[in-house]
Design brief:
Layout: E1 3-4, E2 17-26, E3 32-33, E4 44-51, E5 58-60, E6 62-63, H1 66-70, H2 81-97, E7 106-109, H3 118-121, E8 127-131, H4 134-142, E9 147-149, H5 154-162, E10 169-173, H6 182-192, E11 198-204, H7 206-211, E12 224-225, H8 228-237, E13 240-248, E14 254-261, H9 270-281, H10 293-313, E15 318-321, H11 325-333, E16 343-345, E17 354-355, E18 362-364, H12 368-371, E19 376-379, H13 385-391, H14 393-397, E20 401-404, E21 410-412
Length: about 425
């Protein structure tokens, strides 16, 4: 059962300002198993994002219980080559920068299938993964990554500290937005950080979301949409400080923050001020910076629907590549179904031979593109567009077009 929150989950101020209202939407990773047991529609929840007028944290108004979302998870990190390369580069960086070795201890929160920690395991560095999804944790263990199945927060941190599990490095990639109580999560991190231990956190940057109209990254799994300006006060509240910040192109534009205890020895780096200044210039410290986003979202949706209806009228068959969570947001927002997109494909076997939640578009293995050719491919994970087009250049050579909808409709053809 979902609950509606009326106060900011960071500072508890009343939530009155709409950022964007995307209507009712099914859970982004609630894939429908085949054969269908019933013809009942998928369970849908309001997807209404608001912005706090006090601390400017963007957050969804309707909160679905985490256990309903993450208990048996369909997302496996290891199916994206560019993300694996990003994780390996991160491991190399932190091992060198923080002089990690066999005497160190590394912890990852939301460790998924071990995609990151296996880089530390290979180097003999002790580690522990924490993830609430038993199915992905089982895969991580098969890859040699010790993993505890649990939701992370203050209570679990107390247990880990009591066991003497105090890490030199804590990592979390694209999880801070996934927690329904961000203060509880950061309090847990603070409990485990001792001395000069470091916490690194990555998340899609709210500034990129606004500038590039990345509204499809809004779905029920993401309880918050983060900027440096919004998260810094949360860290300060729990005795922590951000001492470095970096920008990356992953997920359409992300931030990586380096966090330590307030009195730790790590000096402040210029990256923090640079990003903070950029957010100030964009207006993320005042309501005007968030105005008009809903109108821009409607324009993107109208462009996509116009293209799909035009393709249908011209007799062009369209398939979708990537059964991505972000893709399900845009499909449900635009009420797109199998009449406009004949099927979707995905590399992840867990998603294959299912129906996309809400839209009920069938999902198959990637080989379907060979067995049942189409005229156009709509790339739902637009952040991987170049990687996907390069991998399927042979389809382009046969006349197939590649299409992305965000930040605006773009059709690529040879």
């Amino acid at each position: 059962m979902n609950r509606v929150i009326h106060h900011c989950q960071s500072c508890q101020s009343p939530l009155t300002r709409t950022f964007v209202d995307l209507g009712l939407s099914a859970l982004a990773n609630a894939f429908v198993s085949l054969p269908l047991g019933t013809g009942a529609p998928d369970k849908a929840y309001p997807l209404h994002a608001r912005v706090c007028d006090h601390c400017f944290l963007v957050q969804v108004e309707s909160v679905v219980p985490p256990a309903e979302i993450f208990g048996d998870y369909a997302y496996f990190s290891s199916y994206t080559d560019s993300w694996l390369a990003h994780a390996e580069a991160y491991a190399e960086m932190v091992i060198g920068r923080f002089e990690l070795d066999q005497s160190s201890y590394v912890m990852e929160i939301a460790s998924n299938d071990g995609y990151l920690l296996r880089n530390f395991v290979r180097r003999g560095i002790p580690c522990l993964g924490i993830d609430p999804a038993a199915n992905v944790a089982a895969v991580a263990r098969l890859n040699g990554v010790p993993t505890r199945v649990a939701f992370f927060g203050r209570a679990l941190a107390e247990v880990l500290a009591g066991e003497g599990r105090l890490p030199d490095l804590i990592a979390s990639k694209n999880v801070l937005a996934h927690v329904p109580d961000i203060n509880d999560f950061v309090a847990g991190v603070s409990r485990l950080l001792q001395g000069d231990a470091v916490y690194t956190v990555e998340f899609p940057h709210l500034l990129s979301l606004i500038e590039q109209v990345q509204f499809d990254t809004i779905y029920h799994e993401h309880f918050t949409y983060l900027s440096l300006l919004a998260v810094e006060p949360i860290f300060v509240r729990h005795g922590l400080r951000v001492f470095d910040a970096q920008e990356f192109s992953t997920h359409g534009g992300s931030l990586r923050l380096f966090v330590c205890r307030a009195k730790a020895a790590w000096p402040a780096h210029a990256g923090v001020r640079s990003i903070r200044d950029k957010e100030h210039r964009a207006g993320l410290d005042r309501p005007e910076g968030y105005a008009g986003f809903g109108d821009r979202v409607r324009q993107v949706g109208n462009e996509l629907l116009a293209y799909l209806n035009r393709a249908k009228a011209e007799g062009r068959r369209v398939a979708a590549y990537g059964a991505a969570a972000k893709g399900n947001t845009i499909l449900n927002y635009c009420s797109i179904g199998p009449d406009l997109i004949c099927y979707a494909v995905d590399r992840n076997p867990v998603k294959q031979n299912t129906l996309l939640p809400g839209s009920r578009i069938p999902v198959y293995a990637v080989e379907r593109l060979t067995d049942d050719p189409v005229d156009d491919i709509l790339i739902l994970p637009w952040n991987l567009r170049d990687e996907i087009i390069a991998k399927f250049a042979w389809l382009g050579d046969k006349g197939c077009r590649f299409v992305t909808a965000i930040p605006c409709l773009e059709i690529v053809e040879n």
